Amino acid sequence: MRPVLIVAWMALLSGLSASAQQYTLDVAVSGMHSDKGKLYISLYNSEKGFPRDPRSAFRVTHAQIINGISTFRFTNLPQGTYAISCFHDENGNGKLDNNFFGIPTEGTGASNSASGFLGPPKFRDAKFSLSRDTAITIRIRY
Are 55 and 42 in contact (CB under 8 A)? Predict the structure, then answer.
């Protein structure tokens, strides 16, 4: 009976380690028309707040822009469905600036090149599955 318990315990542990697998996501963002300011990127694991509320994001970061390109690496991500939104904070005020009508006056981008019709892109259009180490590219639009 004891070997059966050991085999059952090992099976349970192997199942837990498989479900705890962590992945890396490399993101390259291009198309910025200057190296001024920073590029902010928000990684969402649900549609809540996407793409405009970084407080709802799973992770948020920023990086320098060098020759119109920024790169990011998210580590220790669990398997799942994600979407990315980003913006070029050219004036360095830490937020996406909009005009009187709510249209962004700074460059924006999203995973899968998602864009909205008369509004921001939808999570369903920007989402992608992460089940292995992955690299994606995003192009900023002004």
Answer: no
The class of domain 22-139 in CATH terms is: mainly beta
What does the alpha-carbon distance between residue 49 and residue 56 come to, in Å, rounded to a whole number?
5
DSSP secondary structure of 70-83: EEEEEEEEESEEEE
**Angstrom distances, CA of residue 45 to CA of 6, 19, 56, 128, 137:** 37, 17, 9, 10, 18
Nearest one of 132, 82, 91 to 112, comparing CA atoms: 82
Q: Which of 79, 72, 74 is nearest to 22 (CA)?
A: 79
- Asked if 72 and 60 touch (Cβ cutoff 8 Å), the reply is no
pTM for the full predicted model: 0.85
When pLDDT is averaged across residues 40-52 and rounded to a whole number, the result is 97
Going by the DSSP 8-state scheme, the letter that residue 112 receives in this structure is G
Boundaries of every domain in the chain: 22-139
